[in-house]
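Appendix B, example 12.
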Amino acid sequence: MQQNNNVTEFILLGLTQDALRQKMVFLIFLIFYVGTVVGNMLIIVTIKCSRSLGSPMYFFLFYLSFADSCFSTSTAPRLIVDALSTKKVISYNECMTQVFALHLFGCMEIFVLILMAADRYVAICKPLHYPRIMRRQVCLLLIILAWIGSFIHSTAQIILALRLPFCGPNLIDHYCCDLQPLLKLACMDTYKINLLLVTNSGAICSSSFMLLMISYIVILHSLRNHSAEGRKKALSTCTSHIIVVVLFFGPCIFIYTRPPTTFPMDKMVAVFYTIGTPFLNPLIYTLRNAEVKNAMRKLWHVKTASESKR
């Protein structure tokens, strides 16, 4: 498809054109990205090495942290590098790769959040059947299906992107490649493609958000039949999940479920769900989860003890 285009590279305008603000963007998002990777990797290592975190909830949290790290990596490094670059050039192939990675790991995050909600629903509403329903084999199968679904979604997105002919100009008013800003540069009528985009990405975001909200309403309603201690523990877990869902889906719905119009705040909204949410997730899941914090402390004590013996 690239042979049919006059454009072989794009120029990303980034978040700002001001030199001082670009340095601030570099510093701020470097901190955010390092914090995202370190925080999520810490969760991944803790879950992998701790025997006390072997339940399905932490199995899914492992993949959420992995998806967060990859999702942020699909956009943050280029934003950070471009903040100090005079010419923010991205090749056509790199741009298409970024579109694919952005939707692959973003969709994977959506599916994992749904699986985590399903796990909480079974644990709270059907506790007697929980060990049988959420077996290890079932959890593994669900994750495989989530990867397959994410791959199908991102493949559909990249097919739409590859069908766009670009004749110039090649200035993308964004800090990353995505279908919305690319549609503005295409030298064709993009109404049908935008309709497909809303039908695909918009429908996934909206329907998933509604499904998650309904499931948590059912869960919270069922907690009235639990003991005070069980209710407190379940509320703590569900509150963390609800915070993550709202922070992630709010910006996604704003971006992907509307006509092809551009608003000044679009880039900042995109920053929030591509970089901000993956940064906040480790903080939400560790600061509000006593089991994860205890597992981290135990691993730290084991590591320091082993080093002191050397």
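The CA atoms of residues 211 and 296 lie 32 Å apart. The first strand starts at residue 9 and ends at 12.
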